[in-house]
Amino acid sequence: MPSVLVVDDEEAIRRLIRETLEQAGYHVHEACDGKEGLTRYRQFPADLVIMDILMPDQDGLESILTLRREFPDARIMAITGGSDMIGILNFLDVARMLGARRTLQKPFEMQQLLDAVHTEIVR
């Protein structure tokens, strides 16, 4: 059974993603911030990490960098509801530059998420 690690500080978002993915046959782990996400990935390397960008303590961009450094082959999908810019780039552009293979802007349809997860895990 393919596994997905969902890292998001919003419990309702994590729960919705977890329930959607579990119904589709995925095994799901959760983490509430980047630090916990890295700890969980080190314990249980998932087939895909869904990483929120804007989180307290350790944000998704820093977490993506750490994952890439420690696990170069980790598959990462970045998600965010933030549209702030870093220079001329938005957060999802930066996440892609740091190693996220796919990005989704919140809010997104659950079918979009399922399609993206399936595509990344099948690759």
In short, what is this structure?
The chain has 123 residues and is an alpha/beta fold. It is 45% helix and 23% strand. The model has no long low-confidence stretch (mean pLDDT 93).
Structural notes for this entry:
- The mean pLDDT is 93.
- The chain has helices at residues 11-23, 34-43, 60-70, 91-98, 110-122; strands at 3-7, 27-31, 48-52, 76-80, 85-86, 89-90, 102-105.
- A five-stranded parallel β-sheet has the order 2-1-3-4-7, with helices on both faces.
- The chain has one domain: Rossmann fold (3-Layer(aba) Sandwich), CATH 3.40.50.2300.
- The chain is built from five helices and seven strands; from the N terminus they run E-H-E-H-E-H-E-E-E-H-E-H.
- Helix content is 45%, strand content 23%.
- The longest helix is centred in the N-terminal third of the chain and has 13 residues, at 11-23.
- It has 123 residues and is an alpha/beta fold.
Task: Describe the protein's topology.
Blueprint (H helix, E strand, L loop, with lengths): L2 E5 L3 H13 L3 E5 L2 H10 L4 E5 L7 H11 L5 E5 L4 E2 L2 E2 H8 L3 E4 L4 H13 L1
Parallel strand pairs: 1-2, 1-3, 3-4, 4-7
Antiparallel strand pairs: 5-6
Main features:
123 residues; alpha/beta; Rossmann fold; 5 helices; 23% strand
Q: How helix-rich are the residues, as a percent range?
A: 40-55%
Major pleated sheet:
5 strands, parallel
Number of domains: 1
The CATH class turns out to be Alpha Beta
Which shape, going by the Cα principal axes? Answer: globular
Distance between the termini: 15 Å
Q: What is the spatial order of strands in the main beta sheet?
A: 2-1-3-4-7
Radius of gyration: 13 Å
What's the CATH architecture? Answer: 3-Layer(aba) Sandwich
**SSE run:** EHEHEHEEEHEH
**Secondary structure tally, helices:** 5
